[in-house]
Amino acid sequence: MKPFLDNNFLLQSKTAETLYHNYAAKQPIIDYHNHLSPQLIADDYQFKNITEAWLKGDHYKWRAMRTMAVPENDITGNATDEHKFLQWAKTVPHTMRNPLYHWTHLELQRYFNVTDLLNEHNASTIYNHCNNLLNQKDFSARGLLQKMNVKVLCTTDDPCDNLEYHKKIASDNFEIKVLPTFRPDNAIAVENSMVWNNWVVKLAAACNNNLLSYTDFLNALKQRHDYFANVGCKLSDHGVETMYAEDYDRSDIEVIYLKLKNNQALNYKEIAQFKSAVLYELALLDFEKGWIAQWHVGALRNNNSLLLNALGSDAGVDSIGDFSTAKQMATFFNKLNTSNHLSKTIIYNLNPAHNEVFATMIGNFQSESIAGKMQFGSGWWFLDQKDGMTTQINALSNMGLLSQFIGMLTDSRSFLSFPRHEYFRRLLCNILATDIEAGELPIQELSSIGKMVENISYHNAKNYFNF
Questions:
Q1: Which residue, of 77, 86, 260, 339, is most buried by count of CB atoms within 10 Å of its CB?
Q2: Domains in the chain, start-ordered, CATH in brackets?
């Protein structure tokens, strides 16, 4: 019987242990998609306690606590931080077989050297122990990143952001490269014209332009795109329910834009046309600058209106959607590819039923200019767990080339989430070792397979993004 979370956690053979410890474990981290606060990094923020560092903003933990009927006030409300931690500690023993059980104890081990299993009885002791460490200088926001051997991280930023904190981090010559990512989701959030107009006011202020026409709107987006590039941005990112590739004429979009400016509701076709047009124009900008385009597809967001109204978006009330996306995705990419304007692209799938769809889609638009130009991104959100990552790796292996994969990311708002890279690497090594042990991969090629592990863990991403 293997002990829980020992040095060979998730590694089920000597071959897996060799691959992980000799090849994967020593690789640095490139976290090319996360939701960390650049302000906290710029300020080198010292967290007040483990609740602030670990529970605040963590939707995964909130959902588990709600399932245990923990009062919302003890999750996101006015309860003390120590009480919120206690409520989480009470919840943890009930999370067995949920990835939270692994992540919780992996993070306690890696950052705080806590090997006890968290529960309500030892919660106070662990709370005080972690807080004492978090008060030390090397447990600041920057220190936590350095502990995990992070080399590059890319935050997720609205086009209206002035990026002042990224500039400060760069001016400090911080050893970890912290770059912005252009995330223009608000530009196409036209289902509610009033909300969209409120955002356009911010865009107009950032560009010193009234944005009276669709042409003005596109020029403003280009201006912000240029601004991001000047601050070191190399990636865009889009969170969409599905891809949009509706037919449209430029005159149609001009009319739709004026309707939006006048707070007139759009019908379904007009919404699809506007999204299709704006996303296409943004894709052209990405290609011109040599940026990598990321597409996070398939989330059904903000399902619980009571919690949405009480807490706002990112309240932890999202789920996997079941949208049809293959035809629109193929049409969108083909339009760009036909005119030679298709950037290096990463597509992330949230519905496991669509893994093979995404894995085969990237094969349609590869290029002789770069190996692995089109990427099937790692298991995302609800799928960044043992089964989700395994099925993504298997789909990519069966339909494409695992050797060209650019690996894992945290997609997290927590500075304590970087052991997810370790979790992924252990799973990857165990999958490959299982094939070796079964005679499905050659043991005599162990060093070559080890090199592939190194590449997927670090080097492929470094070369793909040119970091």
A1: 260
A2: 14-38+141-465 (3.20.20.140), 46-139 (1.10.2020.10)
